[in-house]
Specification:
The strands form three sheets. Strands 1, 4, 5, 6, 8, 9, 10, 11, 12 and 13 form a ten-stranded mixed sheet that branches. Strands 2-3 form a two-stranded antiparallel ribbon. The longest helix is centred in the last third of the chain and has 12 residues. About 25% of the residues lie in helices and about 25% in strands. Helix 3 packs across helix 5. The radius of gyration is 17 Å and the shape is globular. The two termini are about 20 Å apart. The chain has about 240 residues and is an alpha/beta fold.
Length: about 240
């Protein structure tokens, strides 16, 4: 299986830290943030990874190179104009060679069993599988509604219409990691900005099987100075383990 790590964002909320360094290269313990995700993928046998670039992207390319220092094969997609999560993935769909693939946000740190996630995706024969988390502040994120079998029904209220006999849905947040079937990209416009969530909603409205994989391990969206400081403390105190 191949993977894509999304690393094209500007990291505006982390300024001034990101004024001269792209967010994926901010240090965390012995590695940049992005390398934590690469080592997570390698631990589970994923060695061929696409990384999209935009803001200060050449720094990322120069730092990571071809990935051989981590026994991986890295490819890059430079976006002169940001394409969003949908457009960025669509741009390189040929890279995935027609099979399911993983997508990770480059600024997300998670101690996730990727192998179990992929096995769940295959067992459920899903079009896509989203890693979900319970969070007391779920409204702060994009609310994902699932049924009793952890099947995704709606994202931010959009998707499969509610039915009279439906049980109250579980409300969870999306953790920024998912497995996609290439069919998911069929209605994503080529060369235009779009969110992959738009594709999710399109398929959910038509009854497609989108699975939820509920995850309770360590997770952080390193998107603000406060969360970045917290994840650094978690590494220092051993709450978050340095990847091998």
């Amino acid at each position: 299986m191949k993977a894509m790590v999304l690393a094209a964002g500007r990291g505006i909320r982390l300024r001034p830290l990101t004024e001269s360094v792209p967010k994926p290269l901010l240090p965390l313990g012995p590695y940049p943030l992005l390398v934590w995700n690469l080592l997570l993928l390698r631990r589970h046998g994923v060695e061929n990874v696409m990384i999209n670039l935009h803001y200060l992207g050449e720094q990322i390319r120069q730092t990571l190179g071809d990935g051989s220092q981590w026994h991986m094969n890295l490819s890059y997609s430079h976006e002169p104009v940001l394409l969003g999560t949908g457009g960025g993935i669509k741009r390189v769909e040929e890279f995935f060679e027609g099979g399911p693939f993983l997508v990770l946000n480059g600024d997300t740190i998670a101690e996730l069993d990727v192998s179990r996630l992929v096995a769940c995706h295959r067992k459920k024969e899903a079009l896509a599988t989203m890693v979900l988390r319970d969070d007391p502040d779920v409204e702060h994120w994009s609310v994902i509604e699932t049924d009793g079998d952890d099947r995704v029904m709606r994202i931010q209220g959009k998707g499969r219409a509610a039915r009279e006999n439906d049980a109250p849905p579980c409300r969870r947040m999306f953790a920024g990691v998912h497995v996609l079937d290439p069919l998911m990209l069929r209605h994503v416009p080529q060369g235009a900005f779009s969110s992959i969530i738009d594709a999710y909603v399109w398929w959910l409205e038509r009854g497609a099987m989108v699975a939820g994989y509920v995850f309770s391990g360590y997770w952080s969206d390193v998107g603000t100075p406060e969360r970045y400081a917290q994840v650094q403390r978690d590494v220092d105190t051993g709450i978050l383990n340095v990847p091998e």
